[in-house]
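MOLECULE: protein
FOLLOWS: sequence and fold
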Amino acid sequence: MPDYGQLDELGHSCQANQDTCETLIRQIRTALSEFEDDVGLLWRLARALFHLSNHVEQERDTEGQKQLVQEALEQCERGLEVDDGVWEVHQWYAIAIGSLTKYEGTQRKIEMGYKYKEHIDKAISLSPEEKTLHHLRGRFCYEVAGVSWLEKKAAAALFGSPPESSYEEALESLMKAEERSSEDWKTNALYIAKCHLKLSDVPTAVEWLHKAHNMPTSTPEDFTAQTEVEELLTQNDPTFDNN
């Protein structure tokens, strides 16, 4: 039986440390040589590969990042073949395929978007209290709410019905994530603010942007979010001074 506890200790810190990611990946690959097709190992490998891809992205190695995310997706596909009742596999499948959309054209993005939603919805049905799943669903709804009329027509032509959502629906999911989180979550706060901006509630958006700005910044995701938070504060709060 693999030592999931020890792997998860490394997993919690690899978001902020590239060397830890690489160590964790080596350990999981070694464990998989003994416990082949262990679903718990497969989704943990996908998670570690994805976190490593974020570190690689910070180094502006686009091809390296894409390869890591593609392998993360492949590990999730292996996991789903073994057992499609594990919510973490569906979560990391969705995260990986969502990350890969930036390399694709409109038609493939739409197709991958449907797969993303399918796996997030399945994961939520298996683990309805998991905060990350509601965050991911909120981000999906946010993106779909901003899809142009032309893109919706293209989706309808390809798949029979266009993707539909709203900023209100996105906000509802993001608030569910916030309510279930016991820690500061910069990216979630940022997306809550972005929903309020889209809904023309600038004062509430600015409040959430300041909350996000004051949260610790430690992971690549945090640094990316912080940059956007500062840009939005500069645009929407005349009193904001980042010096």
